[in-house]
Amino acid sequence: MPVTAVLILDSRGRLLIARDFRGEVDLQEAAEAFRLGLERNAWTNGSGDAAGTPPLVPVKNGAYYFATVKHNDLYFIAVDVSPYSFSGTLVAFLTSMIRVFGEYFGKVVEESIRDNFVIVYELLDEMADFGYPQTTEPKILQEYVVQDYHVMEQPKPPMALTNAVSWRSEGIHHNRNEVFLDVIETVNMVIGPQGNVLRAGIHGSIVVKCFLSGMPELNLGLNESIQIEQRGSGASGSAGTTPPNTGAIELEDVKFHQCVKLPRFETERVISFIPPDGEFELMSYRVANPTLRPLFSADAAMDMASHRIDYLVRARSLFKAGLTANDVSIWVPVPEDADSPKFQVSSGRVKYAPEKDALHWRMKQFPGQRENSLQGYFRLPSVANAASRNSVVRRPIQIQFEIPYFTISGMQVRYLKVWSREGYTSYPWVRYITRASDYEIRLS
Predict the structure, then answer these.
(1) Residue 295 pLDDT class (50, 70, 90 cuts)
(2) Which CATH number fits domain 178-292+408-441: 2.60.40.1170, 2.30.30.100, 3.90.1150.10, 3.40.50.10490?
(3) Left (φ > 0), alpha (ψ -120 to 50) or beta: where does 72 sit?
(4) Which pTM does this prediction carry?
(5) Is residue 177 within 8 Å of 212, Cβ to Cβ?
(6) How far from each other are the two terminal CA atoms of the chain, in whole angstroms?
């Protein structure tokens, strides 16, 4: 079970350190509750010894629970909101924490905690990820949480870091240090005959290709209008719900790669991570209730006679000028018994695809705010069911495309910073892509 928060208080119950891992408890209120209980000897066995109390004590009528360890007149408290938490795990975590502080400061007393509060917070962030205990081995922690007098002029990569960062090997070297970041969004959209959006959805992902030496740490900042809806536990990497905001991008079903430091994202909205080498998906998400305008519109005018059907298809790009869609494919339904096609197009190429009962119009590029047209006809057998043919040709038009330098949700990267112990120059690159997944236009 995760730890909600950790408190360190002095002998009189005054707060020295408070680290909130999960945002589930008011820490000032919790510290005050412990102080008041200390005055009533609620946490002791009457002799002032906290070790004599039950391991897990309910507070505020069970709103949360304390697991307490007393050491050198300091109280180390693990706060949890679940009554089913295993108290032994919480006490073991507190005991390991005290042992780590002893390795760093020599003696764990009020003065050493106050004098080294910055390192205390750094150690807490490394020892627990979103409240889940991680590395509590002092020798590993001392490799990358370093006190001032331990810092060397040219620090080497931590020798034991591979034990703590299982997804990245030690000693990686690249002649050219680069990192490529792709923000990829796929759009699903159903458009009615009048051009109105009947249904829409956006699925997004941030894909990283990392070619960096050593053990770099990257910080990624997204645009401030992003809001992330709470969807349960920290396993999904989702943050707390924020109030509605006009123009906000509300994300759901957010999932992060295990390399992301979730506590920092919770508090600062910064995606901080030590990346695996090569390509991996850093983050995936879904945009909740998107209000979208169509990116493409199309209509097909058909004139059906007994032996022939004529087509006039117009396709328009509705995204802004200056952008260009690549690899555009438009599928227009035709009767299953059509043959002998003839086509003329203003752009691209078209062919008959009998296996799909459709004509396939392809354009390598389709600039924004443009219209292209297709004219053609098919021969039809003399004997056929006109009603059946009409139902076939009224199937939706389907469009596939890819628009670079553009995200339909408005997701943007504000910065991508690379820090390395080696101090090398790195080259970060960011690219945006919007793709059609299931994009169809219904005909009247």
Answers:
(1) very high
(2) 2.60.40.1170
(3) left
(4) 0.60
(5) yes
(6) 57
